[in-house]
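Hi,

I'm pasting everything inline rather than attaching a file, because the server keeps stripping attachments. The sequence lines come first, and each chain or strand is labelled.
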Amino acid sequence: MININKIYQWSRTNLFSNWYNSLLSLIIVFAFIKFIPPLLNWLFFDATFRGSSKAECYGDGACWIFIKVWFQKLIYGLYPENQVWRINLAFLILIFSVITSIFVKPTIRRYIIIFLIFVFPFLAIWLIGGFAIDIESLEIYIPILEEVDTRVWGGLSLTFIIAIFAMLFCFPIGIILALGRRSELPAIKYSSIVFIEFWRGVPLITVLFMASVMFPLFLPGDTNVDKLMRCVIGITLFEAAYMAEVVRGGLQALPRGQYDAAKSLGMGYWQMNALIILPQALKIVIPGIANTFIALFKDTPLILVVGLLEFLGMIKLAGANPDWLGFAVEGYVFAATVYWIFCFSMSRYSQRLEIRFSTERK
Amino acid sequence: MKKTLKHLFSLFAVFALVFAIGTEAMAAKAGKTLKNTKKKGFVKCGVSQGVPGFSNADASGNWTGIDVDVCRAVAAAVLGDAGKVKFTPLSAKERFTALKSKEIDVLSRNTTWTLSRDGGIGLTFNGVNFYDGQGFMVTKASGITSVNGLNGVSACVNIGTTTELNMRDFFNSKGFKYEPVVFEQADEVVAAYDSGRCDTYTTDKSGLAAQRTKLSDPTAHVVLPETISKEPLGPVTREGDENWSDIVRWSLNVMIEAEELGITSSNADAMKTSENPAIKRLVGAEGETGAALALDQEWSLRIIKQVGNYGESYERNVGPDTPVGLSRGPNAQWINGGILYANPTR
Amino acid sequence: MIFKNHILRANEFIAERPKLQYYLPQALTLFFIVFVIGYFSFNAGVNMEDQGMETGFSFLGGEAQFDIQFHLIDYHGGMTYGRAYLVGLLNTILVAVLGIFFATILGVTIGIARLSTNFLVSRIAEWYVEMFRNIPLLLQLFFWYFAALRALPPPKESYIFFDFAILNIKGLYIPEFVWTNFNAFFYSILVSIVIVVLFIIWAKKIQERTGKQYRKFAISSGIIIIIPFLSIIIGGVGLEFIHPELKQISETIFNYEGGSKAIPELLALVVALAMYTSTFIAECVRAGIEGITKGQKEAAASIGLTPGQILRLVIIPQALRIIIPPTTNQYLNLTKNSSLAAAIAYPDIVLVFAGTALMQTGRAIEIISITMLSYLTLSITISILMNWYNKKMAIKEK
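And the predicted assembly:
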């Protein structure tokens, strides 16, 4: 009885406080009743989950068989099926080292982090891309792991490969650019400004076109840098410019006293930045850094304009397959859900960090 | 502090070292194309993203088609095994870049031989493996039976193709109004046409026949009889490595000449004892054909044995008995009233 | 160890010479930049020489030979590549302007809705923001274009709204406006604006002198409506619509002709850009309004301002100062994101110029450079405009 009273009071203040709020509430409730059940029916109740071909999809609901049949490809792209363990292994190593780094002592954690930053990326490339001992002068060519062309990399795994690499490299470059922009040496300062503002002023798509069409012309005639690598370099430089601006915000927020104190201890420029300034500045801008990472993650699908098929690209490819025409909506809904889960949890995590750090400072 | 500095330096050293090794591994140094192909052990071949009959991959990733056969012929000639080809599917837009950036060494992707491409953008065309022409496809229900009924339609087309330019020439010359809708991927064009975004789909007629098999109801569509352009399609290589271009050109030529001389994959070995010197040259029993291309003596024999002659390739991939179902038409040998005319292999 | 000693000695050497400390890093940086640029240009030169490629911008004068589906200025394939570039650029600007317009309206609405006292309204606004900002823009674009707009009916079975707008798979058609005596109408609007400005100045003076207040908003809008209306009655200003007409091309193919048409590619792009960007603008708006302390409102109320006046005189001017800088950034992002047009066949600068024109001419370096510079110019222009506006809005200390 008390509950009903409470609900009444609550709805009085929150739903029906005056005439237009009441009207709005009624309209919204009506819209819910009108649209939610059909949506749920399409998504779940009328949907087909079991089966393995298009013919088994009947009724008005969604055809989730489409996703089921293509699932392997959506995760691994066109990567040869018998080699998929290599991708799995690479990601298992990553997850395993991240988890252990949380539980071990800080002294050991340092080595794990060094491993993750400086060794793991190349290990992963070798593992996923395959490698061979190739000494040109001695005409030695011994393949060790079968080479898998980056063109067949794809799906969600490629999304993560690109995101992880770009994040890893854009961070140090961003810091250097930010320091460069705050430098007192005019040549360094202005070249940093030009560099940053150039990348921030152009869309990522043109950067990718540049990487795929223009960049090969800039290299000596007998070198061929892989297209995926060219694109990752492009994305890295692009995000580094945004990262630089975030870091600069942190540097500007530090009181002058910190610089003076460091200098009075006789520290040089690099010592001062590495030991005093950056650790504090970066801590302030952790939310900004997280937001840049989220933006980067959301930008990865763009590589499909240069013919690399990460997750969204694979969804589109699957939807254009003649056997599966007409399931675009299912594909996009599934893709949206996956991206949303990742981006939303990342943004929630960054909000939590924001709250934690904002209380810490006070 | 000094300790930290030392750490920092060693970190940077490690970083630089690892980075150098990494780039070294990925930036494959390429020498001459032939030498490099032999070292790698496969021919890097650019094909379409799926045109049945020309270059199309089945579910397990095996490529078939007459464009694919050109690359297989090159592999047979150079590496001795027609199976040693790595196929790279490319969109129309990225194909030339892929060739020029050495991602591929042969582009065999229904590419039209035109002056501006041959002269202006650093490509070499190496003969014609399919004589084609541009046509239009419409739905049967539309009742359109000739291109003269196309005034005011919207037309779907692939970006960056000669098709896009021919289409304008055609509509202009007829004084027709039209709306061009351009897409990058062939699949997007087909899907747009299928959904009704466009009233007609235009590309090479062979392409129309091939793409029709992908529509939701292939029988509901017709290809209009008129041909509005000449589209000689053939394999392309980079300008600057003449030896490699020669290999591609003459590999194709061998296939065409083999058909003319009646040499097939099954009788090639027996032909070694033929009386005809032209046949003997083609199966490597006479003359020094391989030396001129820096290949061995049996290169042409391997092409015929492993890939077959042009006629075999045609019947297998696009001929009347296949779903694509194209008759030989202009692609018949010159002795049979077509325009296929092989240069003498001697 | 020897290595370490060397480094330390080098450090000391540099530390003792301030001039060296000043010039050496700069010289190294410049050298590095010059080296990289030189290396790239050298390679480009050699490669293009090897492959027999031509260079230069003379191709811009050449005949384009391709048609463009949607153009704001007169264009056909017989015109030059330069003209095609201009068509693409204008299409980009069109999408950016439309996108900014709708994103702002939507963003402000959602931002205010998030602060609503109505539980349902604020929750829905919150979920709208969380949903659309966390899905990649390209995916949203694909959804609107390949799933939603492709499901529309063919021209024969179009949706028709109020006999005015027609929506089908080939686009959105609205009547074309044809004015008679447009000049009279135009001047009447000019005149009414002048009158309104004069009235507001006069009213302000009166208010300063006597404290008497006029209902400025109501009176101004009255003037703006009435004077042009009079011009229509007296001045013979007429507005006619040319309605798009359904034309049969063949047995089953129909097309609307005449009227103004927005192609589905444009619609999808504008919808996706507006919805995506509006979530960010909504957050800016919310932060701006929440940034004003309660004390401000209370203070304003205590000197006897009405709720409307509080909003207009106290909250909005202050909130705008917080809102505008981050919103500018969102406008910039929207403009840059409009380049995604290339993925759905909307003929913007990327599709027309960095797509078709690049393919037909093969001038990768020139075309990509021009495209990037165009975006850079657009971005810088928007920044400058907004900075100027920002300065105008900034608090003037007296």
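Chain C has a mean pLDDT of 84.

If the labels don't parse on your end, tell me and I'll reformat.
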